[in-house]
Design goal:
Elements lengths: L5 H18 L1 H20 L3 H31 L5 H38 L1
């Protein structure tokens, strides 16, 4: 296997991220949610600590979705017939995404909920 320069490694990583964004509907949904949350957070001027928590949370979801996609593509590459372990691997990876997304909603409600209530009731 050929060794890549650091520049090539970054290039391939970016190609992979663009690929998952283009090919995976759920990644586009997560990305859109991220944009909405970031814009709202800018508008209400959240604190630096709140930004840090939101950024960590957002990246957890994007990372989980990216790993889920890699697991699904790998399973599809290895077998084109139904196998209970292939199904289990895909379901477990999808479960990790679900956990990270639920966590993201909880964190968003904790951080942005008070700002949203203030906007609604002011």
């Amino acid at each position: 296997m050929a060794r890549h320069t650091l520049t090539e490694s970054f290039y391939y990583a970016i190609v992979g991220l663009v690929s998952v964004l283009i090919s995976e509907r759920n990644m586009r949904i997560h990305f859109l949610a991220m944009i909405v949350v970031v814009i709202f957070s800018f508008l209400v001027s959240i604190s630096p600590l709140e930004w840090a928590l939101l950024i960590i949370t957002i990246f957890m979801v994007l990372i989980a979705e990216t790993i889920n996609t890699a697991v699904e593509k790998t399973v599809d590459l290895v077998t084109d017939t139904y196998h209970p372990l292939a199904k289990k691997a895909k379901n477990i990876a999808a479960g990790a995404v679900l956990l990270s997304a639920v966590n993201a909603v909880i964190i968003a409600l904790i951080i942005l909920g008070p700002y949203l209530r203030q906007l609604i009731y002011s």
